[in-house]
């Protein structure tokens, strides 16, 4: 999400006549687009911005601009931690970035930073224009903000209510992305399943996917479409059905469960039970056997007992997630959970995280073992020691060295899985 927003900021700055520095050049302006979702992200950002801010040249350059979720949440408090910030703005004022920099340049001797924050939600989400680096994959935001107020999460406070991008604008953006030659497009939103609800659309996400499918199918070359994140409370069988029937939608569902105990799910205000989650996960497994399911899990949420944690492990065993991002709970400002007692000690959170990660790895290895000998489609997107790419179901596959010379990033080909070593999947051209 932040990478995509940074691409939008770069677009706005270039439009206003600024240009990106080349490697090794000294910048006149440094833009920090920050995240506040976990305490760790915030601490790292403060430390990195502080480093840059303390190395300003005598002429006051580079100008330091900080925007994004962290500055939206902490606002002026951040200026105490990092006093050398020149421009500080939140999450909804990105269009003002060039103007605020211009103002700062005009008042270079003035030590007062330029500030801009939103106080009430804006109208429609009409963000358009992204300066994407040429490559294989592109992001396309379809919503911004979130209405769900999961009790641990700062995102709704930092980004405001969900606002959906009008469908025509998304299709226009997609058209541009396709013309730029990208092979894979990921639609972004905190809860893509609720796309369009704020525009008064019923089944808006299905309609959007159908329109995207029509547009992409008319193209001569193949393009894959993905979407993240699916919220289990709004995930529907009809979305799975659409993916099953589709030639362009990839069968990867990022469906964060967060916890396996109904007590914790309720305290988290997630809006679904473990049983409903398992039902939709089985529907995915039964309908599209080659699909992958990814997830996010938090351990050590307030009041999570060992028994609750064991239920999370049981769900991981049952669903056999191909991908899992796991986190130790950290209290975030303004959230409901931050007023609860953070009852699980840090050492215990660490232990649970370790145990969970070990299980996630075991489950992944067991699941991918089934791929041995199979032929799968691959989109090559990396060239390191060897070429690698991802399958439609989002699994990374490494190409055995014999064919690598005839490949390049962006190639789509059929490969045969030859080996699985240490959890890494290897293949050769089919
Ligand atoms: N919209 C997505 C999640 C966005 S935040 C969804 O609903 O699933 C990305 C992930 O960060 C979350 O899924 C959660 O697992 C993690 N996260 C958010 N707040 C957290 C907190 N306070 N402590 C630990 N992990 C957190
Ligand atoms: Fe945060 Fe929940 Fe919204 Fe995801 S759905 S961004 S976890 S409040």
UniProtKB/TrEMBL annotation:
Name the record gives this protein: tRNA-2-methylthio-N(6)-dimethylallyladenosine synthase
Q: Which gene encodes it?
A: miaB
Residue span(s) of domain Radical SAM core: 132-367
Names of required cofactors:
[4Fe-4S] cluster
The domain of life is Bacteria
Name of one Pfam family that matches: UPF0004
Task: Provide the function of this protein.
Answer: Catalyzes the methylthiolation of N6-(dimethylallyl)adenosine (i(6)A), leading to the formation of 2-methylthio-N6-(dimethylallyl)adenosine (ms(2)i(6)A) at position 37 in tRNAs that read codons beginning with uridine.
Keyword flag 4Fe-4S: yes
Keywords of this protein's UniProt record, alphabetized? 4Fe-4S, Iron, Iron-sulfur, Metal-binding, S-adenosyl-L-methionine, Transferase
Q: Give the E.C. number(s).
A: 2.8.4.3
Q: Indicate the segments forming the TRAM domain, all copies.
A: 369-430
Chain ranges of the MTTase N-terminal domain: 1-106
Do you know which CDD domains this protein is assigned to?
Radical_SAM
